[in-house]
Amino acid sequence: MVTIWRFDSIIGAYFFALCKTNQPDWMRYKGSAKAGNITLTGGFSVELYWNFQMMLNFRVKVVTGDGLTTLPNKTLGGTTATHLNSETGDIALSMSSVVPFRASQLTFLQPTYHGIITCFFMQPTANSIRNIVTAPFHTYVWFSLIGTWLFLITVVKISAFLKSHTNPTTREKTTETKQIDPNVNNDGGGGEFESHILDFGWTLYASDYNNWVKDEFTTEERRKEIPGSQETLLEKNKWQYYDDLDSDTRFASEIGMWAFTANCQKSWHIIPDSLPMRMMFLIGILCGVVCFVGYSGAITSTLTVSTLPVKQFSDLMKFKFLFTVHEWSEPFQIFLQLMIDTQSLSQKVLKITTVEEISHLLNANKPMAFLTYSDLFYPTALALNYTEIFICSHISKVQVSPVLYKSGMFLKKGSEYTEILNHKIIIMKERGFNHRYIRTYETNNIFPCGGASSSTADPIEFTDVLTAFLVACSGLLVSVTLLGIEILYSKLDKVFRVKKH
Asked: Can you give the pTM of this predicted structure?
């Protein structure tokens, strides 16, 4: 009975709607407020209001108002609040944010829009030096690859150890001692450069050979029997021990270097003899192919994709941004003050005017970030004669949080129209009208920056490949330095040998 009584009280009566002059996307009208001949022409709130009028069959009379302000005595002020409290207005078409302070003095209808607080800012200067070594793969992929190779190397080492200690033939062959003629040159005629390269591989199995040499020179008598010094024998005949090893043992002794070459898609000079070792060899080669192809493609993508210094809201604090809000937006001022208190920011609540919304981001001496809703920021930019292309290319945005903040129309506190209007809003939501109005509104007021794909690919700039060039140059310098040290060491070693003899 109560609902029907209130429904009857609206039918045929005048319903006074309050509209603001500075919200063309929420509501549009024509006529003069002074002459009293204002006619609503469109907008998100007006579309909802027209649905109310259609369902309840009331007549419309429009009264102009302004935004909600907080007076020094902690009450809401402004012509909109005055009209509602004096009953010269029934409903405010403005979509205001629902905050506890406002809700305590006004009656909000069911929320018809949800907004996300967004930060708009200019990206700081990006450092050209960036990580391209580990960036191609995620952390868990790196752990998986490294774990796979460590497991494979461990299995090969264990297999070689078990084979050398369980197979008598192999064990006798690897521990065999021989008479060495120090006058015979055993370098195979490969030249000095080949000797330097093989010296590196020798370090992988030198411990076993040193034990063999130690056994050969146990006594003074044995040292006298063999002409030449122990150092000379080590230098001239160190490869004889290595040549006596079988392929499996030699492969296991060089497994670390083989793992690197397999990932670089380079061939190897040893193929294991036994079937288990060959299977592990094949598995390693296949794993290397996968790693090489995946890493090559990923690092190419990493070089061609530009990186942004600020990717999320926490990055703004890391770069010491100052946060600003609009001078008329009390909910954002309250939010910024709460953020200053919780995050211990060294700033005050900085307020800017509508004219300064874009310019204070572009021309600030210190990096600034503006807190607002996307559907409010972009229309303001267009009204200030900025183009969509300019805004998308110069201004970036990040979400402060994924929390949706509700907005809706409001009435005076305890209005008799609350229940019937809420019921009609629920009906419009169930039938999809509210969702359609939201999509139309956001399409017209939010720029889809980066949404459309370009018909031509952007060329790679010098800054995109600077890191790759620096890595290549650094590797070249290190290689040349090591080669110079190795050549110098070889020459000094020869000089010392001549002096010693």
From this structure: 0.59
